[in-house]
Amino acid sequence: MSAEKSPIIIQDEIKDLLSSSDSSEILQGLELLASTTNLVSSFEDSNDAQDTEETIVKIIKEGITNKELLGFLVGLDNEVIWQGLSLSRNSTKEIFLKLSKIEDLIVNRYIVSNPSAPREVKLKIINSDVYFLEYASDDLKADREVVLAAVKSGSYLFQYVADDLKADREVVLAAVQSDGCLLEYASDALRGDREVVLTAFQSESRALEYASDDLKADREIMLAAVQHDGYLLEYASDDLKADSEVVLAAMKSGNSALEYAAESLWSERKFVLEVIQSDGCALRFADDNLKADREIVFVAIQSYAYALQYASDDLKADREVVLAAIKSEAYALQYASDDLKADREVVLAAVQSNKWALEYAEKKLRAELIEEGLVEDY
Q1: What is the distance, to the nearest Å, from the Cα of residue 273 to the centroid of all Cα atoms in its chain?
Q2: In a 3-state reduction of DSSP, which class is residue 256?
Q3: pLDDT value for 40
Q4: Structural domain boundaries in the chain
Q5: Do the beta carbons of residue 142 and residue 164 sit within 8 Å?
Q6: Which of 169, 234, 241, 267 has its CA 20 to 30 A from that of 157?
Q7: pTM summary value
Q8: In this predicted model, what pLDDT tens digit does every residue of 289-300 receive, in sequence order?
Q9: Region 66-89: what's the mean pLDDT?
C-alpha cells in the first residue's frame, strides 16, 4: 500500500503540471486540484510564498497557463490572482471546462467575465447560479435569452445588463414585476411607458421616483399613487403639488406628505381649514395671515392643543384661545404670552388639569400659588 502523499508534495505536483506548456499536463493539474480539498489552509503559512508568487508572475508573463489556481494554494491576494488570469493566453475550451468543475466562486467569476471562454461553459455557470451574470462578459449581458432568464430569477441583475436590453420592454417588465425600483435602470422611453411604470408601482410604490416627468404630472396616476402612499406626493409635478384635491388625498394616507404641498396652498383659507380639522399641527405650514385667523387657530388647537405654538403673537395673548388650548392639554401653557403665564385664572386652569404645568407659570405667580396652598410645590 503506497504512503499517502503530503500536501506539500501534492502542491508541487499541481504546480509543475499547471506550469507546463503541454495542455494535457495542465488538464491533469486541474483534475488533481479539483480532487484536493484542504490545500488552501495547508499553505496559508507557507514559508516559500514569496518565491511561489515570483514563479507565478514569471509563468503569467510567459503566458503559459491560468495561474489563479496556484494562488489558492499559497493564499495569495485576489488582486494578484485576478491579474494573472487576465494575462493568461493559453485558455483553451478544455481548460475552461476543467476550471468550471472546480466550482469555486473566484474561478467562476473569471470564466464568465472572460470573452474568450466558451459560451456553453459560461452559460452552464450562470444557469447554476444566475448571480454570476453580474460579472459576465459583455456578450452575455447583451444576450436577450440569457438576461431574460436571469432577471426572472434574480431581478436585481437587471442593472448590469446591456443598454439595449434596458430598452427592451419584455425584459424591463420582467425586472420591475419583481422589484419596481429597478425602473431606475430602464431606458428613458420605458420610464415614460404607462404600463411599465404602473407595473413597477404595483411592485414597489417608491418606483414612481424614477418615472418620467410626464407621468409624474399625470393627475390620474399621481392621485391613485398618493391615495396608496401619501409620501409619494414628493415625486409629483409642481402643478400637482399645488392641486388641493391631490394634496388632501395624500394627507389622508400620510400626514407627513403635507411638507411637499405647494406653498401657494397654505394661503388658501378653505384648504388650510380642511387640513387642520384632522391635523392641527399643519398650522405650522399656514401663511402668517392665517396663523392670525382666530377661527382657524381655534380649529387647529381643538385637533392639536400644541398648535398654539404656531399661532400669531396676538392669539397667544388671547385669553379665550389659550384657555381652550390648556383645557385640552395643560402643557400648552408654555406657548401662551408672558401676560397670560402671569394670569391667575389661566395658570390655575392649567395646573388643575396637570400640576406639573406650574413649571410654565410666571415665577412670582408660581410662588404665590404655592404659598397660598392652592397648588403643590412641584
Answers
A1: 37
A2: helix
A3: 38
A4: 1-90, 142-216
A5: yes
A6: 234
A7: 0.66
A8: 999 999 999 999
A9: 42
Q: Look at residue 128 in the predicted model and tell me its pLDDT.
A: 86
DSSP string for 123-176: HHHHHH-GGGGGG--HHHHT-HHHHHHHHHH-GGGGGGS-HHHHT-HHHHHHHH
Residue 377: Cβ within 10 Å count: 11
- The mean predicted confidence, pLDDT, of the chain is 81
Report pLDDT for 24. 64
Q: How far apart are CA 172 and CA 178, in angstroms?
A: 10
Alpha carbon of 293 to those of 310, 324, 326: distances in Å? 11, 15, 19
Alpha carbon distance 355, 277 (integer Å) = 29
- Take residue 190 and report the three cell numbers written for it: 420605458
Give residues with Cβ within 8 angstroms of 194, minimum separation 6.
215, 218, 221
Amino acid at 361: A
Q: Which residues, other chains included, contact 215 with Cβ-Cβ below 8 Å and sequence gap of 6+?
A: 191, 192, 194, 197, 208, 221
More reliable by pLDDT, 189 or 45? 189
Spell 300-335 as b/e; 16+ CB within 10 A means b.
bbbbbbbbbbbbbeebbebeebbbbbbebbbbbbbb
CA separation for the pair 110, 68 (Å, rounded): 9
Neighbours of 73 (CB within 10 A): 25
User: Helix, strand, or coil here: 91?
Assistant: coil
Q: DSSP state, 6?
A: P
What does the block give as the cell for 349?
A: 386652569
The one-letter amino acid at 244: S
